[in-house]
Amino acid sequence: MNHISLLGRTTADTELKLTQTGKPVVSFSLAVKRPYTKDTTDFINVVAWDKQAELVNKYVRKGQLIALEGYLTYRTYESQNGKRTVA
């Protein structure tokens, strides 16, 4: 099962964008403190689509504490110089 729950603060205001087909998408970064460690924070990139993207854009602002649930995925791509990168 691929399931993730996060609690953290947003690092910037969100900006709603539309794909070429008109599908709403919003992406933002979430600062999540690691439990049981002092002064360690992970910055997680989050993407929301469709109605969820519209709701996030309407209600979420920079520095706001939010909880979210979803699934974890990562993408790889090859840069112009031929180096493979994980995004």
The helical percent reads 10-25%
Q: Which percent range describes the beta-strand content?
A: over 45%
Backbone shape? globular
Number of helices: 1
Characteristic terms for this protein:
mainly beta; single chain; 87 residues; 1 helix
What does this structure look like?
Helix content is 11%, strand content 46%. The chain has 87 residues and is mainly β. Strands 1, 2, 3, 4 and 5 form a 5-stranded antiparallel β-sheet that branches. It starts with a strand and ends with a strand.
Short overview:
By secondary structure, this protein is mainly beta. Helix content is 11%, strand content 46%.
Describe the secondary-structure layout:
Layout: E1 4-10, E2 17-18, E3 24-33, E4 41-49, H1 50-59, E5 65-70, E6 76-78, E7 84-86
Antiparallel strand pairs: 1-3, 1-5, 2-3, 3-4, 6-7
